[in-house]
Design goal:
This protein is α+β, with helices and mostly antiparallel strands and 196 residues long. 41% of the residues lie in helices and 14% in strands.
Length: 196
C-alpha cells in the first residue's frame, strides 16, 4: 500500500503544478520531510530535516518562477483582444482582407491554441517553450513587458520569502475596463486570498 499511497499525492500535485518529471523524485522526498513537521511531536533529529526540506522546496519553486510567470501570462492574459488596421490586402486563413479593414485579434484564444500548446487549458508552470502572445509581438510588442516581468518577479519573490501558503479566500470580482466584458484589459476589483 505504501508504494501507492506515498507517491500518489505528490505525483498528482506535481502534475497539476507542472513540476517537470525529472524533478518529481526530489520534490517527493522533500515533501515527506515537510509532512513530518505536522506531527503532534517532532523528534529533535527530524526537525532539522523538516526545516531543510522547507528551505529546499522554497528554493526549488523560486527556480520555477520565470516559467511560472510566463505560464500565468499565457493562461490568463491581461489583454485578451487587440485590433489592427490592414494597410494593404492581407491573406488570413485562405481569405483576403481588403486594405482598410479592422481586424480583431483574440490574443487569449491564441494563447490556448492546441496547435501551439500541449494541453492548452492546463496550467503548467514548467511549460517550455511558451510562445504566448500576452504582450503582443513584432513591432506591436508591449513596451512595458520587461517592467511587468520584473515587477511580477519581485512580488512572487517577496511572497515566497514571507509566506508558506497562499490560497483563495472567496470569489474573485472582475473589473472590466469597458463595455461590460473583459475588453481589452483584464483586472480584478478584488481577489480575496488567505496568506499564512
Amino acid at each position: 500500500m505504501t508504494d501507492l499511497a506515498r507517491p500518489l499525492p505528490v505525483l498528482v500535485m506535481s502534475t497539476l503544478l507542472g513540476i517537470p518529471p525529472q524533478d518529481r523524485a526530489d520534490v517527493m522526498e522533500r515533501s515527506i520531510d515537510v509532512s513530518k513537521a505536522f506531527a503532534v511531536f517532532i523528534p529533535e533529529q527530524e526537525r532539522a530535516a523538516a526545516h531543510e526540506a522547507v528551505v529546499w522546496l522554497r528554493a526549488y519553486f523560486r527556480t520555477l518562477l520565470p516559467t511560472a510567470l510566463e505560464e500565468f501570462l499565457r493562461w490568463d492574459a491581461p489583454i485578451h483582444t487587440t485590433t489592427r488596421l490592414t494597410l494593404e490586402p492581407v491573406e488570413v486563413g485562405g481569405r483576403t482582407l481588403r486594405r482598410g479593414r479592422v481586424v480583431v485579434l483574440l490574443l487569449a484564444s491564441a494563447n490556448h491554441d492546441e496547435r501551439q500548446f500541449a494541453d492548452p487549458g492546463g496550467l503548467d508552470v514548467g511549460r517550455r517553450p511558451n510562445a504566448h502572445l500576452s504582450f503582443g509581438g513584432g513591432v506591436h510588442h508591449c513596451l512595458g513587458a520587461m517592467l511587468a516581468r520584473v515587477e511580477a518577479t519581485a512580488v512572487f519573490d517577496r511572497l515566497l520569502d514571507r509566506f508558506t501558503a497562499l490560497e483563495p479566500a472567496g470569489e474573485e470580482d472582475w473589473q472590466p475596463s469597458g463595455g461590460g466584458f473583459r475588453f481589452p484589459y483584464c483586472a480584478y476589483r478584488s481577489l480575496p486570498v488567505r496568506i499564512c
